[in-house]
Amino acid sequence: MSEPTGVIHDIGYQRYTGLRLGRRHVFGALYLHGVRTAFGLGRSAKAKIFPWLVVGIVLMVAGAVTAISSQFGESLMTYAQFADSMSWLVIFFVAVAAPELVSRDLRSGVLPLYFSRPLPTADYPLAKLLALVTALWMLLGAPQLVMFLGAAFTADNMRAVWDELLDLLPGLLYAGLWAVVFASVGLLIASLTGKRAFAAGGIVAVFLMTTPIVGVLSILPSQAANQLAGVASPSTLVQGVGVWTMRDQLITEPDGGGLDLGAFGPVYALVAVALIAAGVALLLARYRKVAAR
Predict the structure, then answer these.
(1) Angstrom distances, CA of residue 165 to CA of 59, 70, 99, 148, 162
(2) Distance CA 126, CA 68 (A)
(3) What is the mean pLDDT of residues 55-79?
């Protein structure tokens, strides 16, 4: 009986001796990749159509507002009002971007590869959330910058430019509020399924189907119910916080208009904070469950 023989072949594998980047770089790479994914960058031409169509629409509206304002010498809308008017587009942007950020990874089963790296379980969803918040803030903030530049170049003096800047800053903060609320809710919904179509439908349903609830509460005989109606929908919740914190930016009509909050402005702010905190906490819990499988 012959002795078993074997041959070891050298196929060129070598040990990695370079710099080993740690958690911070992994988180940064996930975040940057998430921002690019939200806008379809680095992906097929088909994936770029919808996000850049939305970008084109908001920039076109901002350009039109700037041109008309400079032509007639009066502002059509404030920066905060622009964010409100574009909120319906933000809903559909989230419905497309959030599933791209998380549902694809859930369906393809690559999460164990992520978690095998020096990456804590919480870092993955937080990087994706921060990426979506950044994308939404850029979507609403960039057109506001276009409006500001148009107003600044047509201003009579530096004092007018400074006043315009003071109007811009609250608008950018308000855009950030829209981004954080919509991203925390949208990404949580998208993380519940690996099917992008189901995730997108769920996001649209949550944002749009809560609006009739606001309408029902607004016609009840109770004044308190009318004034608290806005907390039933993420969109009107954000608008309520905006009306409470920057009323002069959002309500410019002589008759007042807009949401009637009464004395419940702080309640809107507390509910918004609670909604964001709950969305982030549930998102982290969801990925702890995924990592434990």
Answers:
(1) 19, 16, 36, 7, 5
(2) 41
(3) 86
**pTM of the shown model:** 0.89
Return the top range by mean pLDDT from 33-47, 104-118, 177-191: 177-191
Tokens at 47, concatenated: 């994936």
Residue holding tokens 């975040």? 31
Give every CB contact of residue 143 below 8 A, 6+ residues apart in sequence: 58, 59, 61, 62, 82, 86
**102-to-8, 127, 131, 132, 174 alpha-carbon distances in Å:** 42, 11, 11, 11, 26
SS3 assignment, position 236: helix
Two tokens, residue 91: 């809903």
Residues contacting 203, CB < 8 A, separation 6+ = 91, 94, 95, 98, 99, 185, 186, 189, 190
